[in-house]
Amino acid sequence: MQPIPVKGINIYPYTSMEELTNACYSEKKLFLSVNAEILMRSDNSIKTIFNEHIGYTDGIGAVKAIKQKGIKNAIRLPGCELWQELVKKYGDQSTFYLCGSTSEVIEKVIQRLKKEYPLLSIVGYRNGFFKNEEEINELEEELIEKKPDFVFIATGFPFQEKLMARLWKKHAATYLSLGGSFDVYTGTVKRAPLFFQKLGLEWLYRLMKQPSRIKRQYVLFKFVWQYYTHQL
């Protein structure tokens, strides 16, 4: 599969969740969610990480961008659904490590997973807040020791991408960047209603719920301009 370059980031045009989960199982790389905000905010160091690994169409902006470049069958493949599909599909034959959100949220994630998937092998987990370099070193050592097949990192862009690239060099596994997925899974943050999802307007729903995001999402207006003027 040939990736499609958009704003200096290669996006792999997977056409189904099954195709993407199969790739996650067979390719021991970082699987990185791509959306309009990430396309607009990535610096050269982040672009390098994406292009050494695998970016996929997590957001509607990424879908529209590669459709504009000729990939007519591109679809959105949300990361908040991808990691759960991997658990369902490979939970009884693979091992998992989870890192992200607050201690309270990650505990709830683990409790729910164990209840829903009794055979799931979770070899470790921790919150997504690192006080110092020593804590990151400890995580590296834990991954080297426990050798999980899948590592889910939900600490937010761009820290999670940089952290995953660093960890991958110590322990090569399948890593997923998951942003706020654990908060959604536990109900701490409510995902946009299906109506917004189908229209590709989850970003608008989040903005309505959290108006403070307006500064962060200003780049979306720039993305729209560049999309319609074919500058992506």
How would you sum up this structure, described in words?
With 232 residues, the protein is of the alpha/beta class. Helix content is 50%, strand content 16%. It has helices at residues 17-26, 36-41, 44-52, 60-68, 79-90, 103-116, 133-146, 159-170, 181-186, 194-198, 202-209, 218-228; strands at 4-6, 9-11, 30-34, 54-57, 95-100, 121-126, 150-154, 174-177. A six-stranded parallel beta sheet has the order 4-3-8-7-5-6, with helices on both faces. The protein has a two-stranded antiparallel sheet with strand order 1-2.
Descriptive labels:
232 residues, alpha/beta, six-stranded parallel beta sheet, two-stranded antiparallel ribbon, 12 helices, 8 strands, globular
Q: What's the arrangement of secondary structure elements?
A:
Blueprint: E1 4-6, E2 9-11, H1 17-26, E3 30-34, H2 36-41, H3 44-52, E4 54-57, H4 60-68, H5 79-90, E5 95-100, H6 103-116, E6 121-126, H7 133-146, E7 150-154, H8 159-170, E8 174-177, H9 181-186, H10 194-198, H11 202-209, H12 218-228
Helix pairs in contact: 1-5
